[in-house]
Amino acid sequence: MSADAVRAQVEAFQGRVLALRAEVAKSIVGNQPVVDGVLTCMLAGGHALLEGVPGLGKTMLVRVLAETLSLSFSRIQVTPDLMPADILGTTVIDDSQAGGKVFEFRRGPIFANIVLADEINRATPKTQSALLEAMAEHRVSVGRTTHHLDQPFIVLATQNPLEMEGTYPLPEAQLDRFFFKLHVPFPNRDELHRILDLTTGNDVETRSPVLDQANILLMQRLVRQVPVARHVQDYAIRVITATHPEGEDVPDIVKRFVRFGASPRGAQAILLAAKIRALFEGRFAASIDDVREVALPALRHRVLLNFEGEAEGVKTDQVILAILKALPETKAGAGAAVASVAKDAKATAGGAVGPS
Question: CATH number for the domain including 349?
Fold first, then answer.
């Protein structure tokens, strides 16, 4: 492929993203990192977990995104009594045209391009396991029959970090299937003014579809073609290995507070997200800066803290930021860099959690 052809594809990709951002911004105020995070998950063929207190527009964001993408959308309001059949569908006995009885499979809400699982942590483990197969394999099994899901397929799940009564913690295997975990922040003063103007006035913003299924699949294929230099890929690998307390050149905060680090799936998420970020900015090559920018949402749900870390209120974001600060861009400078920031990383952890 010639340089001009590559440049044209990148410009077309960037133009579609800018148009989609503008359409989403008609109804969603601020939260640009969250919007870009959800778009990144979609273009990578992954799923997103959105965490935030009620009323921040998580559900609205998902609905607006579905409308601007010309994709099928379904919502699952998760409750403790929700059963797997309520999500996947069920086989029923129906009357045939010949007057007899036939078995007919009636599809559940999982059969959509964008699926919103609202308050996913209220699902029982049995129901969560039904979601896991769909998220991992893009297919569902009902009885002896396997049904494949249409592409693109993305699950956008929400959870409330405050209310824990009547909830079931997501198992590590299911958390690992989420490409990103995104924190939805509280809006600032200017954003609140804009939200009130949009939601309490007479003006109603109309949204138009920007991308269709064919364009999205084309953009997903372009993401896979973005080259990554060997030293950039090596940096991503060293970020992952630095999340494991038994690894080499690991910051003190990891050795002290981490029970288990990120899986290889975390490295895949970092690299794909870095490619997408490069395309967002009109570049056809991922850089180390791209890796740094996507590390938090890609790893914050994949790093498991030990008892001491949980008891002292350490956040996984603190651990990942300390790793990024300690890790040099090249392997040759690893020892010196870790030694120079070890004291600073320990101070960061201590300042955040108090004296031990």
Answer: 1.10.8.80
Among the candidates 157, 190, 217, a domain finishes at 217
- Residue pair 213/113 in contact (Cβ under 8 Å)? The answer is yes
Question: How many CB atoms lie under 10 A from the CB of residue 52?
Answer: 20
Residue 21 shares a structural domain with residue 84: yes
What are the pLDDT tens digits along the chain (356 aa)?
677 888 888 888 888 999 888 888 887 777 788 889 999 999 999 999 998 877 777 888 888 888 888 888 889 888 888 888 888 888 777 776 676 777 777 888 899 889 998 888 888 888 888 888 888 888 888 777 788 888 889 999 888 876 666 677 787 878 888 999 998 888 888 878 888 877 777 766 677 788 888 889 999 999 999 999 999 999 999 999 999 998 777 888 999 999 999 989 999 999 999 999 999 999 989 999 999 999 999 999 999 999 998 898 889 999 999 999 988 877 765 544 444 444 444 444 444 443 32
Question: For residue 68, what is the domain's CATH number?
Answer: 3.40.50.300
* Entry pTM: 0.83
CB 173 within 8 A of CB 132: yes
- For residues 297 and 182, the answer to whether their CB atoms sit within 8 Å is yes
12 in the same domain as 129? yes
Overall number of domains in the chain: 2
Domain that holds residue 319: 226-353
Measured in degrees and rounded to the nearest 5, phi and psi for residue 127 equal -70, -35
